């Protein structure tokens, strides 16, 4: 773990829905630190 990296905590089900490209609450990433938001917002996994 990188000691300088931001910590992101999200609801598991909503985050998995985001990863799969499904509709999620508009405020899902509201509490994600600015430094991590682009990476988390663009993350996708094909299930």
Write structural notes for this entry.
The protein is mainly alpha-helical. The protein contains 2 helices and no strands. The longest helix has 8 residues, at 12-19.
Task: Summarize it.
The chain is built from 2 helices and no strands. With 47 residues, it is mostly helical.
Helices and strands in order:
Layout: H1 12-19, H2 37-42
Elements, N to C (H/E): HH
Number of DSSP-assigned strands = 0
Low-confidence stretches: none
Class by SSE composition: mainly alpha
How is the quaternary structure best described?
A: single chain
Q: Termini distance?
A: 26 Å
Considering DSSP H and I runs of 4 or more, what fraction of the residues is helical? 25-40%
Task: Give Rg in angstroms.
Answer: 11 Å
Number of DSSP helical runs: 2
Mean pLDDT comes to 92
Shape: globular
Strand content: under 5%
Main beta sheet: none
Features:
globular, mainly alpha, 2 helices, 47 residues
């Amino acid at each position: 773990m990188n000691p300088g990296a931001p910590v992101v905590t999200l609801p598991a089900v909503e985050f998995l829905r985001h990863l799969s490209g499904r509709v999620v609450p508009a405020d899902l990433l509201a509490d994600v630190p600015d430094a991590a938001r682009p990476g988390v917002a663009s993350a996708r996994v094909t299930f």
